[in-house]
UniProtKB/TrEMBL annotation:
It comes from Streptomyces thermoalcalitolerans. This is Glycosyltransferase. The keyword Cytoplasm does not apply. Pathway: Cell wall biogenesis; cell wall polysaccharide biosynthesis. It holds the Pfam family Glyco_tranf_2_3.
Length: 272
């Protein structure tokens, strides 16, 4: 998918090339001096122990989250701490539908400026993740998306988890054109402008669709490897729907965003 990202932003026209150097943070004041963090977690009810550990790591942050929402995506929720809001969906709406449900609940509270999405089997291993994150947003009012570094318990980051070309050094951050779904943050002001997750995608490439819409609207997408989500070393093919979803959504992504001459003429039904 990184290849498609680079291709699009080299195509010219109304699309701009995104730099991959620097920190992506400019000097100056922000309209949000102390951004308030809301956390969203999706679960299928099969990782109760991992979810409990994740929530404990969220509670241990130096900068506390204003709200925490856990969505049972077509599955009943396990017992949750009293400071966590649970939402049970009657059916599995996919990553996109589940995250939109969490976003809707966080928006109802009215006191969240930055939404942090975390995988239910992830772990925040440092207590200063939210502190660093809010500093990034407070320093740059055009910062829309911040991607975390995904690393396993041995500190290894898979190449597919580095959201740019020349991915041999996962600790090199900067402005990028996509981000990882397992751990990231989204500006609520950005979401109010560009909309939420593309629900027809269900799973796969939904992050790139959101990132491209953010870039087109003038927001920045930053890969911040100092913000780490520990996550087990996995293969995407563990999901049986992976090959079909990736192939289908890659075409949908091209139809929605790429100039017509940039991809083969394929007639396929999909969202616009």
């Amino acid at each position: 998918m990184v290849g498609m990202v680079a291709f699009r932003y080299a195509a010219g026209g109304r699309h701009r090339t995104a730099s991959i150097t620097g920190t992506g943070v400019e000097d100056g004041s922000s309209s949000v001096r102390h951004p308030r963090v809301g956390v969203a977690v999706l679960t299928m009810g099969t990782r109760s122990a991992e979810l409990a550990d994740l929530l404990e790591s969220v509670a241990g942050q130096d900068t506390p989250a204003a709200r925490v929402v856990v969505v049972g995506n077509g599955a009943p929720l396990p017992p949750l701490p009293e400071w966590v809001t649970g939402v049970e969906l009657p059916e599995n709406l996919g990553v996109t539908g589940g995250r939109n449900a969490a976003l809707a609940r966080l928006r109802q509270f009215g006191d969240v400026d930055v939404v942090v999405n975390l995988d239910d089997d992830g772990l925040l291993i440092s207590p200063d993740v939210f502190t660093r994150l809010t500093q990034l947003y407070a320093a740059d009012e055009q910062l829309g998306i911040v991607g975390f570094r995904i690393a396993d318990e041995r500190g290894r980051t898979q190449r597919r988890h580095v959201p740019r070309l020349r991915a041999s050094d996962p600790t090199r951050g900067g402005l990028v054109t996509t981000f990882l779904g397992g751990g990231h943050a989204l500006s609520m002001r950005m979401l109010d402008q560009i909309g939420g997750w593309p629900e027809p995608f269900f799973y796969a490439h939904e992050e790139t669709d959101l990132a491209w819409r953010a870039l087109d609207a003038g927001w920045k997408v930053l890969y911040a490897p100092e913000l780490v989500l520990q996550h087990p070393w996995t293969s995407p093919t563990r999901h049986t729907v992976f090959p079909r979803m990736v192939a289908r959504n890659r075409v949908w992504l091209a139809k929605r965003h790429l100039p017509a001459p940039s991809f083969p003429s394929i007639w396929v039904s999909g969202p616009r």
